[in-house]
Amino acid sequence: MGAYIIRRLLLVIPTLWAIITINFFVIQIAPGGPVEQAVAQLEGHGSGIMERFVGGGSEVSGQDVAEQQSGYRGSRGLDPEVVDAIKAQFGFDKPLLERYWEMLKNYATFNFGESLFKGGNVIDLIVDRLPVSISLGLWSTLIIYLVSIPLGIAKAIRHGSRFDVWSSALVIVGYAIPGFLFAIILIIFFASGNYFSWFPLRGLVSSNFDELSRIEQVVDYFWHLALPILAMVIGGFATLTMLTKNSFLDEINKQYVVTARAKGLDERSILYRHVFRNAMLIIIAGFPAAFISIFFTGAMLIEVMFSLEGIGLLGFESTIQRDYPVVFSSLYIMTLLGLLLNIISDITYTLVDPRIDFEAR
Questions:
Q1: What pairs with residue 114 in β-bridges?
Q2: Dihedral angle sign, alpha carbons of residues 301, 304, 305, 310
Q3: Per-domain residue ranges for the chain?
Q4: Orientation angle between helical segments 324-352 and 96-108, nearest 10 degrees
Q5: CA–CA gap between residue 54 and residue 8 (Å, rounded)
Q6: 336-353 pLDDT per residue, tens
Q7: What is the C-alpha separation between 135 and 152, in angstroms, rounded?
Q8: pTM of the predicted model, to two decimals?
């Protein structure tokens, strides 16, 4: 198993390189890069960004500064010196390949640089957003698994019964409802004040969080998370529930279960001592993908609607602004975590079923 893990870890390097390389050159081709974004802001809004580049050493006339501070330049456009200063500030005065190699060297040492538009170190920005994304991803994934696995087992045991039919209908209806639409319904009924004002509309904690006792802080934390998590999990039960049910049905009909019953073992012992371990293999296989999808992408619209500053919202804003350091670093970290979680998933396979030997393959 040790040799297999080493091989998988070594494969992480070329995989990361390929993904980052493809995205780097694709994004370079896309119109509206950071330089164009900054120029548009200068032409449309003026002072703050203008002072940044004037202070950086470019020579701009007093009339140009006055016009930029008033937010108006007429049809004259920006001076070439200002555009060159913007390119130098963002590092776009260097050739494409030089920027590419510099990015690879920095990412190899986990140096993700500074954000082009938000200010501050990229790692600091991501760390600041992590509590929201971890909260949403962890609790929603945990709730989905805690509900779906027992429900799937119960459906397998009662296959074809009224309970099976009605529970299937409910989880499919939940799956058909988009998370953002359900979030709107929850906000209207439980947070807007039109019907009830039981839950807060925004933020992960209250403004007086530091003044609360430990128990009150825990209650306040889950009070703010209740609606966002409910909106996220509503559509997550169907796939895992049906996967669990079908996996258990497949195992229940196998010969070793018939033999166990013939030996006089009770159904509970057969189910949880023999069937459960084999049926759970396919469930374990889907955990990394489920966690990564919820952790990095599934929460974006929920974060927007509930004003939660998470990684999903950060990635979306950075993509719109063409904030390349944030975009590439988010992609790099997400890919690295996904690859490592897949390795952990394989290790978990062998713990659940020692008969599986990846090294022999």
A1: 121
A2: positive
A3: 32-111, 123-352
A4: 40
A5: 50
A6: 887 887 787 777 777 766
A7: 25
A8: 0.71
